[in-house]
Specification:
Length: about 110
């Protein structure tokens, strides 16, 4: 069985960057991952727009924090979720990153 990878990325009012990042991850050839998107206190309007433009995918979960708790706080929030799903590896990505479809396989 393949190792499970938890991928954590944050969003704070940057829907376009985040959507492109999410799309690139979902196109990965490595298929045993959970994508944890942490919305770190975006405005309500921005958050609603984000949920409408993101693809519906069982690998993607969106976790909303009502108030921005900073980069480290948002990542720590995601790490707690990754611990609950018992991921073998954790990949932290900035939301303005586009990942190659082979990258996760090579890292694992």
């Amino acid at each position: 069985m393949k190792n499970t990878v938890a991928i954590i990325t944050l969003n704070y009012n940057q829907n376009d960057y985040t959507a492109k990042c999410i799309d690139s991850i979902l196109e990965s050839e490595y298929d045993n991952f959970k994508l944890l998107l942490i919305d770190n206190g975006s405005s309500e309007l921005n958050y609603v727009k984000l949920t409408k433009i993101l693809p519906k995918n069982e690998k993607l979960t969106i976790n909303r924090i009502d108030k921005n708790i900073g980069y480290v706080g948002g990542i720590n929030y995601g790490l707690k979720i990754a611990k609950k799903i018992k991921a073998d590896y954790i990949l932290i990505m900035n939301n303005d990153t586009i990942i190659d479809k082979h990258a996760i396989s090579k890292l694992v």
